C-alpha cells in the first residue's frame, strides 16, 4: 500500500511574512491522521523557519526546490545537498521543467543532482514531463522513458526506492489545463511499467508516482482516484492554505 504524498512547490513566491502565515495556516488546518504525507517546498531562504513551524505537526516534511550538482566549492549562489541536510530538509525536487527550460538542465546534470541528494540520505522528487508539441507529435512516451533512463535508472534498486517520481506534463504546469484522468493514468501506468522492466515488481509497485500540472481543489479528487496516481506535486494551489488542505484531504480519502 503506497501512502499518498502531496507536495507544495511554492516556487519563487511569497514574502517572508506571507510564507509564515501560509505555513501556520496549513499546520493549524491539517487534521491528525489525514492519510497522506505532506511535503512543503518553500524558497531556500525560508527553509529553516518553515521547519520550525512544521515541527508542531507530525507528517509534514520539508523539501528544497533544487540543489547543486556539486558537493562543495566555488559555485556562487548554489546550495549543496549536505547544506540542505544540515538544516533538516528531507526531500529535494530535481528536474522541474522550469529548471530544465530556464536553466538548461540536461540529463547528465540531473543524474548528478539525484546522486548528490541520495549521498546525503535525502529523497529526490524527480520530475519528468513532455511539452505540448511532443505530445501532439506522439513522442510523449518515448520522451518520458528517455528522461527516466538518463537521469534515474542508473541507480541501484536500493537507491531508486528512495525516490519519488513526479509526472508533470509541461503543458499543464501553471496553465490551468489539467491532464484528463485518462491521460494521467495512462502515463503513470507506463512509468510503473518502466520501473517494472528495470527493477522488477516489488519496486514498481512500491514507488510513488505523483501527478503535477494545474492540480486544484476541484480536480484533485478525480486525479487521485487513478490507481497509479499516488498524490500530487502542486504549484499555484499550494499557495492558498484552504485549497492545499482540500487537495490533501482528497489524497487521504482516495487512499
Ligand atoms: C509545478 O510547478 O510543479 C506545478 C505543478 O505547478 P501548477 O500546480 O501551478 O501547475
What does the secondary structure layout of this molecule look like, with pairings?
Layout: E1 5-9, H1 16-29, E2 37-41, H2 47-54, E3 60-64, H3 81-86, E4 91-94, H4 97-102, H5 107-119, E5 123-128, H6 132-136, H7 140-151, H8 157-160, E6 164-167, H9 181-199, H10 201-206, E7 209-212, H11 220-224, E8 231-234, H12 241-253
Parallel strand pairs: 1-2, 1-8, 2-3, 3-4, 4-5, 5-6, 6-7, 7-8
Helix pairs in contact: 1-2, 1-12
Bound molecules: phosphoenolpyruvate.
Give a structural overview.
Helix content is 44%, strand content 15%. It has helices at 16-29, 47-54, 81-86, 97-102, 107-119, 132-136, 140-151, 157-160, 181-199, 201-206, 220-224, 241-253, and strands at residues 5-9, 37-41, 60-64, 91-94, 123-128, 164-167, 209-212, 231-234. The protein has 255 residues and is α/β, with parallel strands linked by helices. The radius of gyration is 17 Å and the shape is globular. Helix 1 runs parallel beside helix 2 (47-54) and helix 1 packs parallel to helix 12. Helix 2 (47-54) links the parallel strand 2 and strand 3. The mean pLDDT is 97. The longest helix has 19 residues, at 181-199. Strands 1-2-3-4-5-6-7-8 form an eight-stranded parallel β-barrel, surrounded by five helices. It is built from twelve helices and eight strands. The chain binds phosphoenolpyruvate.
Summarize the structure.
With 255 residues, the chain is of the alpha/beta class. The chain has twelve helices and eight strands.
Q: Helix and strand string, N-terminal first?
A: EHEHEHEHHEHHHEHHEHEH
Report helical residue fraction.
Answer: 40-55%
Major sheet, described briefly? Answer: 8 strands, parallel, barrel
Q: pLDDT under 50 segments (min length 5)?
A: none
Radius of gyration: 17 Å
Ends distance: 9 Å
Structural class by helix and strand composition: alpha/beta
Q: Indicate the mean pLDDT.
A: 97
